[in-house]
Design brief:
Radius of gyration: 17 Å
Pfam families: DUF2390
InterPro entries: CHP02444
Strand content: under 5%
Strand order of the largest sheet: 1-2
Distance between the termini: 15 Å
Structural class: mainly alpha
Protein name: TIGR02444 family protein
Organism: Vreelandella salicampi
Number of domains: 1
Number of helices: 9
Oligomer: single chain
Largest sheet: 2 strands, antiparallel
């Protein structure tokens, strides 16, 4: 069970605001894009776990399963479609002003889709336990490595269809996890 102080802190520090701040930290954007493209990590879910971690919380794996499935559907059916269209227009946008404008519109729509997804993650986390029992718990013991903790949240067998072993151990992927862990270590942990 998580204490009410930590839950109140989650409500006062919206996930979207955290994501914007965290994403602008040195090397975080590149690390997130690397993990998204090379390891098929859902960056919204990654940011969600990072947000919880900074408040001394983590998601209960069993409770997270249904919400993860809903968020994955959103990412596949909405965000990934917009991202694919935006990326497909990249070459044409360099020589055609109309295509460049369309691409910019798609980029804004993609960002709105990401924000909506993050807001849904946040709503799930802060719903009263009467609605959905025991979704969050306090981080029992602070790990030596924030990067490793974050990987466990994403690649736990209960969480993700892609195992850590299935993800090619590329140096770029290892470096990306390290960057994120180093940035998480900079946050003051809730007591």
């Amino acid at each position: 069970m998580c204490n009410s102080t930590r839950l109140a802190a989650l409500k006062q520090n919206p996930l979207w605001d955290f994501a914007l701040d965290f994403y602008t930290r040195p090397e975080v954007e590149a690390a997130c894009l690397c993990l998204q493209d090379e390891a098929k990590v859902d960056v919204c879910e990654l940011l969600f776990h990072a947000w919880l971690y900074c408040h001394g919380l983590e998601a209960e794996p069993e409770a997270l399963a249904d919400e993860r499935q809903a968020r994955t559907c959103w990412q596949q059916e909405v965000t990934a479609v917009l991202r694919g269209l935006r990326r497909a227009l990249k070459g044409s946008a360099q020589t055609n002003e109309g295509v460049a404008e369309l691409r910019a519109t798609l980029k804004r729509a993609e960002l709105l889709a990401e924000r909506e997804n993050l807001q849904r993650w946040q709503q799930w986390a802060i719903l009263p336990e009467i609605s959905l029992p025991r979704r969050l718990k306090e981080v029992a013991q602070w790990p030596c490595s924030s990067a490793y903790w974050l990987q466990l949240q994403i690649f736990s067998p209960n969480f993700h269809s892609l195992s850590e072993d299935a993800c090619e151990e590329r140096l770029s992927v290892k470096c990306a996890w390290k960057v994120l862990g180093d940035q998480l270590d900079r946050f003051t942990r809730a007591r």
